[in-house]
Amino acid sequence: MGKKAYRHPAPEPFEGDITAVTVGGTVLWLVLFVVQLPFLGWLDDHDRMWWLWTCLAGAGLGVVGLWYVRRREAALARGGDAGPRSNT
Fold it and tell me: Span 16-39, mean pLDDT?
């Protein structure tokens, strides 16, 4: 009748080249935005303008993410805290 709660330890955080991943994703969203610009008429005729704005939003959020990642890496280099960590 009762549900068993299974607790697993949290996985280790990914400590790869996060800046490269963020830049790559941001560039990809920006390229997709630019590629769709010649098709504005078709997108508008087929109610697909949200494709264009989704790509622009992805690129914008990527820029914010890049800013965040750089601040985090600078804090780690200074020996500061990069955010909340759990010791459990």
Answer: 95
Q: At what angle do helices 49-78 and 18-36 cross, to 10 degrees?
A: 160
Predicted confidence at residue 11, as pLDDT, reads 85
Rounded Cα distance, 19 and 73, in Å: 9
- Each residue of 49-85: b (16+ CB within 10 Å) or e? eeebeebeebbeebeebbeebeeeeeeeeeeeeeeee
Residue in 85, 84, 31 with CA at minimum distance from that of residue 58: 31
Tens-place pLDDT, residues 15-26: 788 999 999 999
Three-state secondary structure call for residue 49: helix
